[in-house]
């Protein structure tokens, strides 16, 4: 039997019904009379709602197509595995010895399902208002500010719409340099619109640097209006 | 401007934020700065959760595949149009004159979207606990008892509840035989409750045979009462 106290600490939540939590942590490979599949069904729906509502409120100007797209980028196996790893859920799940040998404790599908099940269990015993802060906290921890901005705000796309309307052309990005050792590289990118340079910025990848400099340019266009 | 009072009466709910309800009733054909698409995004997620939780609790012995299948049969355009008609939502929506001429007030897609949006709006202004009884009430009104039974048809669970209350024990299913070639096998199952045989039935799988014989037993208990 695992010691849940660390998991509880990590989630800043005290489990009430231990049977329910055990069910949520139990993978079907154990062939017990219960496993976490039913709770996963419930957890999936509640996560979809919490993330949907979060995005609905965070992006009052996005239409439902954009909201769906952003949500789909968070609410999926990869996204939930990321969150499961944030709370080290793999340390607590119950799987068969065959799955254990098969590296099941680190499999995305198993971790993601268990994550949904745990959240389903918390919802069931404590309700939506108890679960919301847990999820939003985890989301913000896992997707750091800069990543969140990139994920949510596609500055390149937004800028392109502006420049096409204003100049009938799209921005040009030039790589000005790259710095640091391979595992810690930074890129510096400049942005040119209609023959004029609008800014220069660094980022941990070319993509991040482009987004950063697109943001700088957008702010200038906003300033003009 | 519509008179909402009838809709409010029908839902047994007082709208708080009139702007939000107007948004929920406004179809995109009107080309206003707002329409019900964002609220529909939210409503879709909240309906999925409410119906999912309802089924989760109603069918403790169904696995997640069965729950998903039942939910999918309720949470879809047809299902929501049925519920929209139950509250005569078509009388209250705002659509363009072109859509009006095009019979838009009776289109499944428009009604279903508006239904999700209205439920999203109620969730937003009053929360999950206010919305749940509204939805469950509508579901039970729209799907009469007999349909619900057929739709869900988890007779085993229903019977178990009856026998636990009446005898403090659960039914026993015995396989009496199996017939036919492998690809077309049939199973015959009998049911025993408190030491007495209540019936025997065939089915294309053990599970289906058990459901069939559980139904036979339920009818006897219903006849008794």
From TrEMBL, chains A, B:
It catalyses: Endonucleolytic cleavage to 5'-phosphomonoester. The active site is at 44, 116. Coiled coil: none annotated. GO terms for molecular function: double-stranded RNA binding; metal ion binding; ribonuclease III activity; rRNA binding. Transmembrane segments: none annotated. One of its GO terms (biological process) is tRNA processing. Its cofactor is Mg(2+). Mg(2+) binds at residues 40, 113, 116. InterPro entries: dsRBD_dom (IPR014720), RNase_III (IPR011907), RNase_III_dom (IPR000999), RNase_III_sf (IPR036389). Residues 4-127 form the RNase III domain. One of its GO terms (cellular component) is cytoplasm. Belongs to the ribonuclease III family. This is Ribonuclease 3.
